[in-house]
Design a protein that fits this description.
mainly alpha; 17 helices; globular
């Protein structure tokens, strides 16, 4: 098994490692805040992917790097997060997150389903994925509402593409609105699609932004369970064959392992079992893995596919993102 894994994945992983090392080396020789190593890695990957460089032999390793290595890096971030520093305004942040989830679900229903005539199940998956925790949320909710593979694919595929663009575009809000690191963390944590994308989009700005954004996003993940129960009520005819045990089992099954690891490491850091210096060292290692993973993600982004995405689904998602960003910008001034 290990030998097969090595043969299938080593070339792609090594390719990403080499590019990440080159990027790190270049940035160690220059002093700039205009562009970050993570963003550079993503852009380099996209450039290579769309310049017709043959990548067939690298595909499996690239996908592994863009998913599993990125998830591992997110987990390592927990070792540098001291939770007591972030809970000072916890109640206010929680209420903003709940408002964001409710607003996103309403937008997906009234804009996606009612205005654009999207199937109700597809509109629901779009709302869930973009208000909670991306692909994992879609995976949990899909069997509860009996969504089909086409609906699942559309919700995940289009959301992931638009979520990736946020890594590049969202940091532009900092100079536009004069956001501080804490404020930007709330905006990123509230509006970006997937956990890993949240970390990438926020780490570009500052470590504090990454800490706040990750905490906000994890709170969104936790709220998946009550949202599933609400959706069971609205889709009770579709989900009548799904008992409560199955729902709980599905939630536990799709709760990402790296989120569990992140929580454990953050608890260890917050209880001083992992001290501040060790936590910062681990963060530095994670930062390199993020660069590597951003290269891998870029290597899977086909610019032609962006032009092919379903416009109605895409517009619905964009409206949700705009709502979340607006909510984040406005609320961050009062937290």
């Amino acid at each position: 098994m290990n030998k097969v894994f090595f043969i299938n994945n080593s070339a792609g992983i090594l390719f990403c490692v080499i590019i990440a090392l080159i990027i790190q080396l270049i940035f160690s020789q220059i002093d700039t805040k205009i562009i970050d190593t993570l963003l550079t890695g993503l852009l380099v990957g996209i450039l290579i992917k769309n310049s017709k460089v043959p990548l067939n032999r690298l595909e499996k390793g690239v996908k592994f790097s863009g998913k599993h290595i990125l998830e591992f890096a997110v987990m390592l971030m927990g070792a540098s997060i001291f939770l007591p520093d972030l809970f000072e305004n916890g109640i206010k942040i929680f209420l903003v997150i709940v408002l964001g989830i409710i607003g996103s679900m309403l937008i997906s229903f009234f804009v996606g389903h009612k205005l654009f005539n999207l199937d109700k199940k597809l509109a629901t998956l779009v709302g869930v994925g973009n208000s909670i925790c991306g692909n994992s949320a879609v995976a949990v909710v899909a069997p509860v509402i009996n969504a089909n593979s086409t609906q699942i694919g559309a919700a995940i595929g289009i959301s992931a593409i638009l979520g990736a663009t946020q890594i590049i575009l969202l940091p532009l809000l900092v100079p536009i609105f004069g956001l501080g690191d804490f404020q930007y963390g709330i905006v990123a944590g509230l509006s970006v699609y997937a956990v890993a994308q949240v970390v990438a989009a926020s780490s570009i700005v500052s470590p504090l932004s990454a800490d706040v954004a990750t905490l906000v996003k994890l709170t969104r993940v936790i709220l998946l369970a009550p949202l599933v129960l609400v959706l069971r009520f609205f889709f009770k005819t579709e989900s009548e064959n799904t008992n409560n045990k199955d729902v709980v089992k599905n939630i536990l099954k799709f709760l990402p392992w790296f989120i569990i690891g992140f929580i454990i490491l953050s608890i260890l850091r917050s209880s001083e079992i992992i001290n501040k210096d060790v936590g910062l060292d681990i963060r530095n290692y994670a930062k390199f893995l993020f660069v590597l993973s951003m290269v891998a993600i870029g290597l899977t982004v086909d610019l032609k596919e962006i032009a092919k995405v379903g416009p109605k689904v895409a517009i619905t998602i964009i409206i949700i993102i705009i709502f979340m960003i607006t909510l984040g910008v406005v609320s961050s001034n009062y937290i």
